[in-house]
Amino acid sequence: MFDYKLLAALGAVVEQGGFERAAQMLGLSQSAVSQRIKLLETRVGQPVLVRSTPPAPTELGRRLLNHVQQVRLLEGELSELLPSLDEGGLPDRLRIALSADSLATWWAPALADFCAAQALLLDLLLEDQDVGLKRMRAGEVAACLCAVERPVAGARSLPLGRMRYRALASPAFIARHFPDGVTPRRLAQAPAIVFGPDDRLQHRYLAALGQEGGFLHHLCPSSEGFVRLIENGIGWGLVPEIQVREACAAGRLRELLTDRPIDVPLYWHYWRNGGSLLATLTGHLQRRAGEWLLPD
Amino acid sequence: MFDYKLLAALGAVVEQGGFERAAQMLGLSQSAVSQRIKLLETRVGQPVLVRSTPPAPTELGRRLLNHVQQVRLLEGELSELLPSLDEGGLPDRLRIALSADSLATWWAPALADFCAAQALLLDLLLEDQDVGLKRMRAGEVAACLCAVERPVAGARSLPLGRMRYRALASPAFIARHFPDGVTPRRLAQAPAIVFGPDDRLQHRYLAALGQEGGFLHHLCPSSEGFVRLIENGIGWGLVPEIQVREACAAGRLRELLTDRPIDVPLYWHYWRNGGSLLATLTGHLQRRAGEWLLPD
């Protein structure tokens, strides 16, 4: 069998973003962590870690971490049946990748009861909904919420519903940039706000209006910051309807083109052999997500 | 002089997180970008890029990017004097690193007028306030807002004020975890919420109460998500006072220990020779930050 001490050291260095913190987390010296990584590399015959800042796993390192994640989930399963093997009754942890927009809106109310009832601790990772799956593929997470349907090998995907986005701006921004009304062409000339290089929602919206190509935009990788920039008239952007109901009702935000939403489907990806906690959480989301998301 | 085409290719690969996107951005083929990086490495005699996913600059690569950032700021300065050299009158862009908490609260209202008046586009990067300075050191940003006072070489730092944090939880969470009142010991046993591995605020708060060592916590790298988790009773955590005035007034959130805030100082770091736009922005922040931050 693999030596999981070595693999745990690799996981700690990647998760914690460095050797020093990994050593703290594992309760080891830094040189002990270093030695374990070197020993692992000697055994597998190639590097598992790129020594950048922060260190990144190589392709092989990634596969090993993927494997460790699945073994951990299986162990979680087993330790429920054999409570004496458990390390002191610590709460379970689940590492989950999701989009900032879900986290800023429906995720917390959907999970509230579940976390309390199961004494579950969440390690949340933010990933844009079009690319979150790479965290599953890399074996860094137990589950992932994203816009891509097709599961990675060993995992399943479950449609939870659709998140509706509307193109919004502040009344002052609309008055300044569209004195003669909003047209697709003028919209493509007004500064937009884009979440980050992986966010293509504004591009898709403009393309659907026949406006292909580049456009001026701010970059703002924060869901709340995104809405704040729009409210303050710094740009326009696509925002989840459920995040800004109040701001729209109060007139602080207005839809640019009447009733032209974009819907983004959300899929829950989880390991097939992920253990009963993950299965219970999956069932919980399947039952509850409809309270916030539109039917699929 | 340096060949800035090669350096621009390096910058694009790092900024865009890959060769393919860098090629799109530069309007080149992927192999042309690759060749430029290789040529740069031949000239400087060592690697400038670690070929990880995403690619990361080596120490030397970082220094070169730092240099490019400063040259760009200087060019921006010059192109104002010589508008004919400017590439088609595109708006200026400033790349700025700041904390999610500032972005979720006072940043947008503070910048609103400025962006409109200067036709400025913002590239915002999120970095925890204790570590944001590494983006300055790496030359990836024009300015940085963080909790560290000491500037990097070539830059200045300016105190803008203090952000006040309070330890908050929902009434339901308090009832569940502290039926006999909140004590430091019980607080250290209730699940906290921590922004990420770089966030030591909850640790410092507990340490100030005499509770050293580890504690149970969720990880949630989103400012709005952080507040949502607290409002839904999933954990307790330290939140900027200005972010939750309304939730506290409405009784959705309560301070755990009466009037025990933590203040975090915020410093604005900017390149000394960063050009007049950066200098104007610096003056603007110096005048306006006091509307949201406590005096230093």
TrEMBL record, chains A, B:
<dbReference type="GO" id="GO:0003700">
    <property type="term" value="F:DNA-binding transcription factor activity"/>
</dbReference>
<keyword id="KW-0804">Transcription</keyword>
<dbReference type="Pfam" id="PF03466">
    <property type="entry name" value="LysR_substrate"/>
</dbReference>
<keyword id="KW-0805">Transcription regulation</keyword>
<dbReference type="GO" id="GO:0043565">
    <property type="term" value="F:sequence-specific DNA binding"/>
</dbReference>
<dbReference type="InterPro" id="IPR050176">
    <property type="entry name" value="LTTR"/>
</dbReference>
<keyword id="KW-0238">DNA-binding</keyword>
<feature type="domain" description="HTH lysR-type">
    <location>
        <begin position="2"/>
        <end position="58"/>
    </location>
</feature>
<dbReference type="InterPro" id="IPR036390">
    <property type="entry name" value="WH_DNA-bd_sf"/>
</dbReference>
<dbReference type="InterPro" id="IPR036388">
    <property type="entry name" value="WH-like_DNA-bd_sf"/>
</dbReference>
<protein>
    <submittedName>
        <fullName>LysR family transcriptional regulator</fullName>
    </submittedName>
</protein>
<dbReference type="InterPro" id="IPR005119">
    <property type="entry name" value="LysR_subst-bd"/>
</dbReference>
<dbReference type="InterPro" id="IPR017685">
    <property type="entry name" value="ArgP"/>
</dbReference>
<dbReference type="Pfam" id="PF00126">
    <property type="entry name" value="HTH_1"/>
</dbReference>
<comment type="similarity">
    <text>Belongs to the LysR transcriptional regulatory family.</text>
</comment>
<dbReference type="InterPro" id="IPR000847">
    <property type="entry name" value="LysR_HTH_N"/>
</dbReference>
